[in-house]
Amino acid sequence: MFAGGLRLMLQGLYTLLLRLLLPLVLLRLWWSGRANPALAVNLGERLARRKTQRRGGLPPIWIHAVSVGEVQAVAGLLRGLRERDPQRPLLLTMATATGHQRARTLYATELAATSGRAALRLRYAPFDLPGAVRRFLQQEQPCLALILETELWPNLLRACQRAAVPVALVSARLSERSLRRYRSLAPGLMQRSLQRIASLVVQSQDDAARFIALGAAPSQVLVGGNLKFDLQLPPDLPQRAASLQSRVSSGRWVWVAGSTHAGEELQVLQAQRLLQAGTLAAVPLLVMAPRHPERFAAVAASILREGFVLQRHSDGGAIAADTQVLLVDTLGDLLAWYACAQVVFVGGSLVPVGGHNLLEPAALGRPVLSGPAQFNSPDAARLLTAQGALQMVADGAELAAALQNLFEDRLAAGRRGAAGEAVLEANRGAAQRSLALLQPLLPAVVQDGATGSNVA
């Protein structure tokens, strides 16, 4: 009785804190959208104040993918769900404007109208406030919620339980750092939230052990693998990469620093400066892509302050021969630049962010460099490192040395790139395994002309 009351009090405090922070969150989102329309988030949808686009028919399966990485990772799962039951509507939600934009591009065919209705719909996920999640569930009436990775939202999980909507985490991960944070801040609330999840399909045995340590029942936890290993490269990528490559002087080497953060760009620029002062026959072009679009202007100013010749990707046209740094200040072009590069550095790793997607450049056969902070995807980092596809660097000086070695030894660079492709190929299949493990929760397949129900 006391434990139950304490959990309710903690959930109430959590909700109160969210309500207090909400004006600041709304202001930040409004300001980002005002400064850059491409970053505008539909606040009506995030508060579930807008009426749904759903018009009867079967209740949808709801898939939540937070941002760009998860939106791309869910492709195999969406394809498997569609193949299993073509009549079942699918609803894909995300929390960021960049994720929404990527979904519109990546799933354009699935979003096209079919037989009078869309095969797939997009909308923003609601904020984790009781009223917002309740309205969202009333509007959409999903028969199942599949949430990617580690989105443990107490109010959302509570509302799904009350609405009899089963929830599963898919490709779920939990780092040691997150485990310590959850256990120190609100272990009872997290344990209760986990108990409201019907199934946790996790990435690895280590993730399984951490979820159980947080309070999940062992019977809930199943190992399905990491959906990001099922990465499918866009069919138009070769054409997009060729278009970008045509802007670079013939024969000039390119290295990309992708998804960089504050405190990291200066180390990347240090590496470029050391390369320029080194023994390479020709100075390579650095293509820098900051993780957050709202930082484009600040990063451009920093590059100029450091004395580099800068050009913006958005300017278009040929890249001048004396350009030292190209700033990718658009959305959706990083993967194509990866395809143009001889070497890729993946950011969020020389600062304590936890690292970003190492598998995209590996899938393209590019040797990958990254920093030591890899707690977001430790298994991918471990596998790539073990096979020689990934090299860790501690700072700008080590980054420069690694780049110089790879530019000077193209055979070694080729072997590293091939090793990365082999790691992805050996670890594919997470979408199929996850769907098989989720089978008890999936709604019954509907035949043409039949009506659906919420009963699995």
Layout of strands and helices, then pairs:
Layout: H1 2-35, H2 43-46, E1 61-64, H3 68-73, H4 75-84, E2 90-94, H5 97-106, H6 108-111, E3 113-114, E4 117-118, E5 120-124, H7 130-140, E6 144-148, H8 154-162, E7 167-172, H9 176-185, H10 187-195, E8 199-202, H11 205-214, E9 221-223, H12 237-245, E10 254-260, H13 265-276, E11 285-290, H14 296-305, E12 310-312, E13 325-327, H15 334-340, E14 343-346, H16 359-363, E15 368-370, H17 378-386, E16 390-392, H18 396-408, H19 410-426, H20 430-438
Parallel strand pairs: 1-2, 1-6, 2-5, 6-7, 7-8, 8-9, 10-11, 10-14, 11-13, 12-13, 14-15, 15-16
Antiparallel strand pairs: 3-4
Helix pairs in contact: 4-20, 7-8, 9-11, 12-15, 13-18
Structure report:
With 456 residues, the chain is α/β, with parallel strands linked by helices. It has two domains: 10-226 and 430-441, 3-Deoxy-D-manno-octulosonic-acid transferase, N-terminal domain (Rossmann fold, 3-Layer(aba) Sandwich), CATH 3.40.50.11720; 237-426, Rossmann fold (3-Layer(aba) Sandwich), CATH 3.40.50. The protein has 20 helices and 16 strands. The protein has helices at 2-35, 43-46, 68-73, 75-84, 97-106, 108-111, 130-140, 154-162, 176-185, 187-195, 205-214, 237-245, 265-276, 296-305, 334-340, 359-363, 378-386, 396-408, 410-426, 430-438, and strands at residues 61-64, 90-94, 113-114, 117-118, 120-124, 144-148, 167-172, 199-202, 221-223, 254-260, 285-290, 310-312, 325-327, 343-346, 368-370, 390-392. The strands form three sheets. A seven-stranded parallel β-sheet has the order 5-2-1-6-7-8-9, with helices on both faces. Helix 12 crosses helix 15 (334-340) and helix 13 (265-276) crosses helix 18. The two termini are 33 Å apart. The model is unreliable at 451-456 (pLDDT under 50).
